[in-house]
């Protein structure tokens, strides 16, 4: 693996005033392998609470943070695409703002990248069951869990490469891989789209186990398991044959 000169951490945000200060604090405190320098690109996706104002205050005090703004909510995929255009690092990772994913695992992904002849690393949550008490109901959790398992299996079968957690937020990839990639998705279907296109470019995706603290729907979880699951399935089919 070539030496990483800079890492871009893209944080898409929509109505996360309760968690945005904490996640930015954790990111700013990161100590990455080999002291890799990093930038934090926060894309406010049309938040209607106090999220934008909080990010603005923090970014004025720290040059590592860049704040980009969508006047209206356009979706996670659109926010990530905006962040990619701004990214100056030779590697990019996506970080959700809701504290489900612990930023300390970013170092785990970077170390895996360093010790293997690979250029894309995903953090997989599906090596074990997450904490059920953070889900709104067991039935709803099971739909989400097995839905993700199913979509990951479909991804593996369609694209000829085994993967266990296609929907994970933690995707570490070279900026060069997406620089000329025509990304189209605006919502959560961004996850299957970028995975499909990385695989079609013949990038080998390596997975490392991570642990998350799933957020319940009463805490603001935005993913609609059935609707977004159907969209993800159709996205995987679409990009396999186009």
From TrEMBL:
Q: Which keywords appear in this protein's UniProt record, sorted alphabetically?
A: Transferase
UniProt xrefs under InterPro entries: Glyco_trans_2-like, Glycosyltransferase_2, Nucleotide-diphossugar_trans
Q: Which GO terms describe its molecular function?
A: transferase activity
Q: Which residues form the Glycosyltransferase 2-like domain?
A: 8-178
Q: Does the keyword Hydrolase apply?
A: no
**Is rRNA-binding found in the keyword set?**
no
Protein name per the record: Glycosyltransferase
Q: Which organism is this protein's natural source?
A: Candidatus Roizmanbacteria bacterium GW2011_GWB1_40_7
């Amino acid at each position: 693996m070539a030496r990483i000169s800079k890492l871009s951490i893209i944080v898409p945000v929509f109505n996360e005033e309760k968690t945005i200060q904490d996640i930015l604090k954790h990111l700013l405190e990161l100590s990455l392998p080999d002291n890799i320098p990093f930038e934090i690109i926060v894309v406010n996706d049309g938040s209607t609470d106090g999220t934008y104002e909080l990010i603005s205050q923090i970014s004025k005090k720290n040059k590592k943070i860049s704040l980009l703004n969508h006047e209206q909510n356009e979706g996670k995929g659109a926010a990530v695409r905006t962040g990619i255009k701004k990214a100056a690092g030779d590697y990019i990772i996506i970080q959700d703002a809701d504290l489900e994913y612990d930023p300390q695992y970013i170092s785990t992904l970077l170390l895996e990248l360093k010790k293997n002849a690979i250029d894309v690393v995903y953090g997989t949550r599906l090596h074990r069951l997450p904490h059920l008490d953070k889900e709104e109901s067991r039935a709803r959790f099971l739909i989400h869990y097995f839905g993700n398992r199913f979509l990951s299996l479909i991804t593996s079968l369609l694209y000829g490469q085994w993967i266990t957690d296609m929907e994970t937020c933690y995707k570490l990839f070279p900026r060069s891989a997406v620089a000329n990639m025509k990304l189209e998705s605006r919502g959560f279907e961004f996850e299957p789209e970028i995975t499909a296109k990385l695989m079609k470019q013949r990038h080998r995706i390596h997975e490392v186990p991570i642990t998350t603290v799933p957020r319940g729907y009463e805490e603001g979880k935005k993913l609609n398991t059935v609707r977004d699951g159907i969209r993800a399935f159709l996205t995987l089919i679409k990009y396999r044959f186009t």
